[in-house]
Design a protein that fits this description.
Purple Acid Phosphatase, chain A, domain 2, 5-stranded mixed sheet, binds manganese (II) ion, 10 strands, 2 domains, 34% helix
């Protein structure tokens, strides 16, 4: 039995399933996912459908993109109610009309809150090109909202935290750029190292692709690992930028096995 953690998937469903084959993931194993299942990549739809049916030994946390996806669906629901559209949740034609209404309201300047709606075009693509319905979007919204911000557990005597971006004591993160726990879990970058951390433990996150020129996490597409000797805390960033592989030859999908800290790449 092994415990695996997979980095940011962003619609790279084929790489994700290939990774499960590579590690020969079985019912005896556990799989944690660090979030950001949607946006940017080609197969958000397949990823959401896989998550919907995922077995009970799979433990996904929320990423910022997943939270934003859920917020966009809430905006659609708000328009449905405010405009009295009575959208049939099973009708793609109705769902297209609902989307048009939201975009029309935004153009008319009625709703500034819609400025960031569907920033990556994922929801529009799902509705217009993939035939997705309002009912399906509501179901995925509920599913993504049900995921925790983090998992914390003991593995062979080691305190382990799985989180999208950062984790630490409330007092310590209060000094950071993301002083609220939820924001720190979802958005922290270098602050995850500076203000985050636990005593004698290990924090495994994603969020900042290690292919970027970020002075804190750049590892040419390899997993970032840092040991803070003061707290005896190991930090992992396992987002190796899989979704950017067409632009960055070093980009990869990474999977970390916690028992022996072996890393698998695809
Ligand atoms: Mn992220």
């Amino acid at each position: 039995m092994s415990t695996y953690v997979v980095g940011d998937i962003h619609g790279c469903f084929d790489e994700f399933t290939a990774m499960l084959d590579k590690i020969r993931f079985s019912n005896e194993d556990k799989l944690y996912l660090v979030g950001d299942y949607v946006d940017r990549g080609p197969k958000t739809l397949e990823m959401l459908r896989w998550l919907e049916k995922s077995p009970s030994n799979v433990f996904p946390v929320k990423g910022n993109h997943d939270v934003e996806f859920a917020a966009y669906v809430r905006l659609l629901r708000r328009v449905d109610a405010s405009e009295n559209l009575l959208t049939d949740p099973d009708s793609n034609a109705d769902t297209c009309a609902l989307l048009e209404s939201l975009k029309y309201l935004f153009k008319r300047g009625c709703q500034d809150a819609f400025a960031y709606f569907d920033y990556y075009g994922t929801i529009t693509d799902l509705i217009v090109n993939k035939g997705v319905t309002f009912g399906e979007l509501l179901k995925w919204k509920k599913m993504l909202e049900s995921y925790p911000l983090f998992y914390r557990f003991n593995l062979n005597g080691k305190d382990c935290v799985i989180v999208h971006a950062g984790f630490g004591d409330e007092d310590s993160i209060a000094e950071s750029k993301h002083p609220e726990v939820e924001q720190f879990c979802l958005y922290a970058r270098e602050d995850a190292l500076k203000y985050g951390g636990i005593w004698n433990g290990m924090i495994i996150s994603g969020h900042t692709p290690t292919i970027v020129d970020d002075p804190h996490f750049a590892e040419q597409g390899k997993v970032f690992r840092f040991h803070d000797p003061e707290k005896d805390c190991i930090f992992y960033d396992i987002d190796c930028g899989s979704v950017f592989r067409t632009k960055h030859p070093a980009a990869k999908l990474a999977c970390l096995r916690l028992e022996d800290e072996e890393v698998f790449y695809l």
